[in-house]
Amino acid sequence: MHRSLRISSALLPRRQQFGSLNFALSARRAASDDSRNSNSPELEPYVPYHILKPDVVSDYMPNLSAHLASQLSNCPLGYATTMVGPKTLVKYVQNEKVNLSVKDRMPPLLLVKVGEFYESFGFDAGILIAHGGLNSMGGKLRAGMPLANIQSVVDRLFQSWPGKGADSLEIAVYEEFGFNVTGTGLKNRKLQQILRKGEEEYFFNLHMGEGSSTMNEGVRVILVRERLTKSQKSYDLYEIEPYISRCSISSSLPLSSLLSLIDSGSVYKDTVYFSGGDLPSWAGDLEVERVSGGEQVMIENLGVKLFGEKWMGVKVSEKCTETSMKPLNFETAKEIGVVRDHRIASLVAAVIGDEKGYAADYVRDMLLRHKGVEVGAGVRNIVKWLTNTKESLPERKIIDVKRVIRWIREGECSRRGFIELRESVERAGVWEEFCIREGVACDLGKVVEYDTAGEGGRVKNFSTIRQRVLQLIENTVAADEDAIVEAIEDDVKGKGKMEQTEIKVNNFFVRNDRTWQGRVKEDATDGVKQAVKRVEHCKERLVESLKRDFYHDEGAEVVVDIFNNALYLRCEPADRKGEYMHPKDRNNRLLRNRYTTEDVNEKLRDYIGATQECKAEVAGALKSLSVDIGRLEDGLDAILECGYINMIIEVCIRHVAEVRKKGWTIPDVEESMSHAVSLNDVFPYWMGPSSRVTNDVKLNGMCALTAPNMSGKSTVMRSVAAAALLASAGMYAPVGSGSRVGVLDAIFVRGASGDAPNEGKSAFGAEIEDIGDMFGTCSDRSLVFVDELGRGTSPTDGASIAAAVLEEMAKRGINGFFATHLFEIFRLIPKFPPEVRERIINKRMAVDYVDVGGERVVEWTYKLEDGVCKDSMALVTARKFGLPEEVLDRAREFQGLVEGRKEMEEEEEREENWGVAVEREIGDIPNLDLGAACNILEAVSNASAITLPAKFTPPPYLEGRSCVYVLEVPETSAEGGSMYYVGESDGVGKRLKAHRSKRMRGLSWSNCKGKIVEVEEGKGQARRMESEVIKRMEAMGFGMISVADKSHTNFGGGGRDGDEVGDRVAGQARNGENTAS
């Protein structure tokens, strides 16, 4: 069934045609809705984003309605298909939109460079107008911005995005270079970057295409060497990353593991380089080029061939060590949610709360490619320390460090890139010292070394080199306080002519100075210093000419022409007829409705030329900085390590914060265990505390598992596999305390999947191929899960093959589950050798029968028990999923199976009632500072507060727990001082991050510090305490940023969440509203 989207509020006639448009997503819930909303535009199921109704739009922009289509399936931009020409820019954008669309996810918004502007079309433009603060271009559904404004628009979009939250928003930015699209006359364009929450910084002018080095064409070069041993093929994977001088080798991979590593990694060149027998068919659409020679020769020859003089060699590291598990194959990764599959819950999201972004990619790679026992132990120790610490933690800075290193190598890193790098390097140093103090520096070092080091280990003198990098950046790059001056608001209504003119001219200078200002220090180089002086000199001369020729008449109207970057008069002054001339535009056409003088024209050219020269000098200074850092011995290696220190710590903190509220624990990993796994109270990683059912699982052999349909056997297997994988990686797992896992060499999961027609395989062929991979990969230290083998062929053949596979697995000492509905297998097991039979135990999923109205109904328990189930209860499932009753009746005649099923009900969680009286009272408070505020907080809560310094984050154990906090926010005025904010949250870490990202005039939220107390009685009591603290602080005379929550005294289960109030206050701050009391 399609979903219908429609506007839930009308357009309001304010400022911009779409400027105050509020969109809402409305999903169709029942078939009856289809008839009631037959006029709503139908959408493809994978396009859940906001649409503009033609009849609503036409009320305010009549010429737009013809441009909107009623079916997004015709055009993802919303244009009528007949209006999109085959060789037009809009057609190109439409095709790129389709290419970037992924099922069940919102497609990215597209920003495409068109000359000096970045533009969007159709529905994307409507969203930029509605939520990005842009105006419509020419009354059409088209919007754009110059390069200088792109970041502010992007930031505004992420702050105001209304859909499923900013996490649902992605913005794809395209750069342009040259006219070389054959037969179209269009410029060649290429995707530069996809911006998303947490990665919203845009690094412009760094497109990957002609005019740039070949090193920018891809982030990895893939080299595959084929091996043939005992008539079975395996592969060595070489991932060459030339810009960071690394080559990672994963040896002896089966084909499925090879493909999962290639597909899940970062962008790579479209050509796969191959050494071996026949060219592989698995490469699909990728181009395959043959190479030859030994390992070192192949790598060196390939590097010189692809990168020429830029090739600097690589450090080689083997990723598949003796103590590491073999990389997951694609089927296993899919079945337990490591790679994306819309049918299966994401394990990555369960681990850190998100499946997108740099941190998610790092976790995905960590789970796909096990890092070994020592690295796993290092991660485990860091996670345990983060769980137990009560201290506030330094902030982290996550950047795409490999991309930044590439830009430095190319001499193309921008100011924003260096600012991001500086923060990453600074915070890595803080964390290095912090971990030394806390006794986990060695554990962190093990993980960093695996991720970054080649031959020779980690960087020597890491601290010294790090300080040298920071000093180089400090000497050149402008600090935040030296950044560009903001333009004055263009709203000149109600102001006099001269005041209007001054505002317009000021903004003209600001827009031009933005091309160079605030990027490097004005004394960074002699060239920059001289260029800045020339700009100021030319500006002064231009101002003098403007005063003489444009300002002398108070009635004269000055026009700022953004497209021609010029200043004109709208009318020739009456008292100086004949002294003025018509200027020419950038295409040398005469502008007959504009006027200027020779003097102003000449001074204007000088000023524009000076700004361009200054821009070039600034770019040269940044390029020189890239060269200096690139030449620093081990400088780029130290930067790489800094990036990974931040990433590792960030992932561990997010992990602890996410799983603490889920009741997960950290299993021990023991090499000398008698069982492969011994898990207490294991449960599905995607289920919350109120709905999950736990099981105890001990595996020392093969478990033959039988169960009715839908009774949870596949869920149990996925749960055990995921728990073992997470435990081996050193992470929390969905298990109870006392759980243990042995040292495993492989985890293999083969679910009941379908055919693969594009590979020429039937369902049976595909599953047998995977089983072949399993036998070639797994040993007596492996954990294997096979679900419904043999279902793709006849029951007799399927049971025979399944029994033979189960026997061989037990014979080889493999541990795991073998789930089946082929009950004939149990007549064959007695024929197994006695020593093999001893390694097989029978388990089944238990069911209960309850009496409902005199009828005996099946109830699933989702619990494991000993025994064999020989009744699949297929008709119960068939009825549940809509098989017609007459068909079911006939089936009962044929098979006599049971019917009915009662679904398990979810338990409802209730908030605890207010039950703690505030006992401790406050004495006299002499000074209104954070210490005095802490006294109030501790008196109200009757608990000791945790100190939160500036640039520190709360300990992760607080995530998921109710907390009340007080923040001291410094004022930016010359007099200094502070304002105070009181809040409560069950996610205090995320709430603090939101606070520190606020922009409110006169306050420095990014440098706020505070005090936090945990409220064990729950959210209701926390909100009462918040209200009481606000009242007392206000009564004492504290300067409060907001007192909106002081009236919160009665909260039930349906009360408004306190975080919503925080969101409203944050929204007021973003909109420039004064929330100070």
From TrEMBL:
Keywords on record: ATP-binding, DNA damage, DNA-binding, Nucleotide-binding
Keyword ATP-binding carried by entry: yes
Residue stretches making up the DNA mismatch repair proteins mutS family domain: 700-896
Region listing for Disordered, in residue ranges: 1049-1077
The keyword Nucleotide-binding is annotated on this UniProt entry: yes
GO biological process: mismatch repair
Alphabetized Gene3D superfamilies for the sequence: DNA repair protein MutS, domain I, P-loop containing nucleotide triphosphate hydrolases
The protein, known as: DNA mismatch repair proteins mutS family domain-containing protein
Phylogenetic lineage: Eukaryota, Sar, Stramenopiles, Ochrophyta, Bolidophyceae
